[in-house]
Amino acid sequence: QLQLVESGGGLVQPGGSLRLSCAASSGFTLDYYAIGWFRQAPGKEREGVSCISSSGGSTKYADSVKGRFTISRDNAKNTVYLQMNSLKPEDTGVYYCAAEAAGPDYSGSLGAMDYDYWGQGTQVTVSS
Q1: I need a labelling partner for 80 at 20 to 30 A (CA). Which of 3, 25, 41, 101 fits?
Q2: 53 neighbors 102 (Cβ within 8 angstroms)
């Protein structure tokens, strides 16, 4: 079964940057999966942040991160990235990546219910 592993979280000051990575377990390829990034702050529901199609040709962003976050993928490295710039305290939370089997024309979804495979999450804390 496909397993996803997130990395790159940490503590950063407001205005700083982090790059999160989502890698597939050995023996699996992400080529045929749309990937989403989600986050969950304490006491809040899980929120869709960004997603990317299996081909990488289509991306979506939540309004709260548009212009600050960039999702990308390197299928040769079997990895999806979330570059987060101009971080704010309200970006704090556990960030999860998720995978949904999809063809190249499927643009992806910010809805958690659409995804079948989830990583364990990585903590991002934005604080001075």
Answers
A1: 41
A2: yes
